[in-house]
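Hi U.,

Before I forget, here's the chain from the pilot set. I'm dumping it here mostly so it's searchable later in email.
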Amino acid sequence: MPVPLIDLTRDKNQLAEIEAAVVRVVRSGQYILGPEVENLERELQTYLGVKHAITMSSGTDALLAPLMALGIGPGDEVVMPTYSFFATAGVVARLGATPVFVDVEPTFLTIDLTRLEAALRACKRPKAVMAVHLFGAPFDVDAVMKLCRQFSVPLIEDAAQAIGTKYKGRMCGGDGIAAGWSTFPTKNFGGIGDGGFLTTHDDDFAAKCRLLRNHGQAEQYKHHLIGGNFRMDAIQAAALRVRLRDMEKVTLKRRENAERYRRLFAEARLDWVKLPTEVDRHAYHQFVTRLPAAKRDLAIAHLRQQGIGCAVYYPIPFHRQPCFAHLATDQTQFPVADAAAAEALALPIFQGLAEGEQIDVVGALAKFAR
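Structure:
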């Protein structure tokens, strides 16, 4: 039987709860913001241990709003890793600011501290650092925060893939001025459409982001800021409230699946496949392996022929994207990101994955090796 990269329909009991929640919203007549959204925000605050959680229309907008709240715009620079989902860089460029790319470290593929410091020193107008908790693993938060304090710039955490991730025993997303999160359906904490939220401990910053979320208005037709329409639909909030109740179980299951992969790969003696490194609490949004570049695409073709779902995250780092060619970035400064783009291969890791399916995944790679 085929093994999907992800299947969002396997937990029938949870789906039935979500369907009931959607019906509740439909019958309520309150479709934008409202009680469902407010309850979700309170529940997220409790789960993540943050003072404020502000729902947004997407994970992208959850990164855009903090930049807007900081007043970042033309002439400003925001330093970030070159290896991430496009939104990390796109929100900066969208405001007319300049994304400054740095290479990633080789273990977790998160921002390289030495390159980050060098970039901050070289910047003329550094206004923020945007570091990414990638694939469910945390970046070195304390070290990045130390550099941010040294250069007097705020940290925005891109936590789109980090729900359930812990760094030194604490939930990610509460150290910078803000963190942006995604609830896209394929995330560990995924809704039934686009969505996201931001978190912060700063009262004034939270108030400003709430204004920005709703066209800058605190009362109807009176606009204190020029914001946007970043509001979350009540149906999304209702579905996410159901998902949030099982968040710890989801994280545990994905971690169990990762540990099973380690055992299966060891038993199959597939030591030419590099597995993701364990960390305090890796949430495994993705189980990203590393294959020799000469074999990676051949392995993908073989796996798909065998009905095994797989994907490449991310094949083109920011410094090689056509839309950023005008930045004239030195292409030789990103060897780790370039290697990752050529070697990374994500295998199924979702919480509904069966042991037999994992055996099939590893078996297919073993067959390819022969």
